[in-house]
Design goal:
Elements: H1 2-28, H2 40-48, H3 51-59, E1 64-68, E2 74-80, E3 93-100, E4 106-114, E5 119-122, H4 127-133
Antiparallel strand pairs: 1-2, 2-3, 3-4, 4-5
Helix pairs in contact: 3-4
């Protein structure tokens, strides 16, 4: 009987020790910043590393850059043409959208072209080729 009590006490001590160790290890691990905590500059810097972004910014160095946190974290690079007298309500634009993970790493991307005659959505696997040859904003 004494031996079974000793075994039970040893098991309780062992389990308690494992739990304390687990809690300690979780508490000392550095937290991963959430997307709300990442500064826009850090998110943009990560997106700027992509070949697609480099191609776009080489062709359009004055592209506007915006971090969108309204849904999934994203970075938009946008080039908008000045309005023409006969244009519709939507100005012609070219956009590269990079969807990011919650820790700010690029995951997916696509390009979009809208002008008076074209509305195109270019999937990720075709974006590099498209950006090198696009004529979206040429009249």
């Amino acid at each position: 009987m004494l031996q079974s009590k000793t075994v039970a006490v040893a098991m309780v001590i062992t389990i308690t020790g494992v739990l304390i160790l687990a809690l300690y290890l979780v508490s000392v691990r550095p937290p991963v910043p959430s997307e709300r905590e990442l500064p826009n500059e850090a998110v943009i810097e990560r997106a700027n590393r992509l070949e697609e972004t480099k191609i776009l910014l080489t062709r359009y160095p004055n592209a506007s850059i915006e971090v969108d946190r309204s849904g999934r974290l994203a970075v938009d690079y946008r080039i908008t043409e000045p309005a023409q007298a006969n244009d519709s309500n939507v100005l012609p634009y070219l956009r590269l959208r990079i969807l990011m993970s919650s820790d700010g790493e690029p995951q997916e991307l696509f390009a979009e072209c809208w002008n008076n005659s074209t509305n195109r959505h270019i999937e990720q696997e075709d974006v590099i080729s498209y950006l090198r040859t696009e004529t979206c904003l040429e009249q």
